[in-house]
Amino acid sequence: MLRRGGYIAAKDLRLAVGGGQGLVQAVLLGLLLIFLFSLSRPTAELVSPQAAAAIFWLASSFGLVLVFNDLFSLEEGQGCRLGLLSSPVPEHAVWLGKGLAGFALLLLSQAVFLPAAAVFLGQDLKGDIGVMLLTLIGVDWGLAALGALLGALAQGQGARESLFSVILFPLLLPVLLGGIRIFAGSFSGEAAMDQQLWAGIIVAFDAVFTAAGAFLFPYLYTGEE
After folding, report:
1. What CA–CA distance (Å, rounded) separates 139 from 134?
2. In the chain, which ranges are E strands?
3. DSSP assignment letter at 90
4. How far apart are CA 157 and CA 95, in angstroms?
5. pLDDT for the residue numbered 17
6. Per-residue pLDDT tens for 47-77?
7. Phi, psi of 38, rounded to the nearest 5 degrees
């Protein structure tokens, strides 16, 4: 399953980078959000590390939606979904490939958001870079695991079914709050007292939605009841 998931991820990345607009839209929207929030600060005052971390993850979460919408819409428009459904590739491998592709695209967009946060929000990395990178990877995988579910739920469906993505979106809040708390400590240089608690929440979130994605994705992707 891992090898087939890797093939699907490579296919999605070629489509997204070569002909899709999701990554470009995600980067532009994230930069716009960071820039607009930077204008809200009073003159000669810096954005607090907590606020800067919240803005960074807000840009990432909106970028997540655009990235996965693009991944599924490209596949739907080019008839790839029917081809995958008729192939011997298990749906679990499709979910893994979608998650890995979205994870990679999210990291690419964040490679732009972090310098933008440093420039526009006046932030410096003062904490442990290892903790920050582990948090970034952990939160991003949780976002990607749930994003693949949201994309499968919305693609090819009517407006009524697509509304479920709005209902599921608040499920991102625990992992986003964990990312905000730990990133705030990385920006300020003072680790939060509850950092281990939030790290545990991120790990638990990843485990729950990785299992949920592997179990539920086949039913959502094939449209089975």
Report:
1. 9
2. none
3. -
4. 18
5. 80
6. 888 999 999 999 999 898 888 888 887 766 6
7. -65, -30
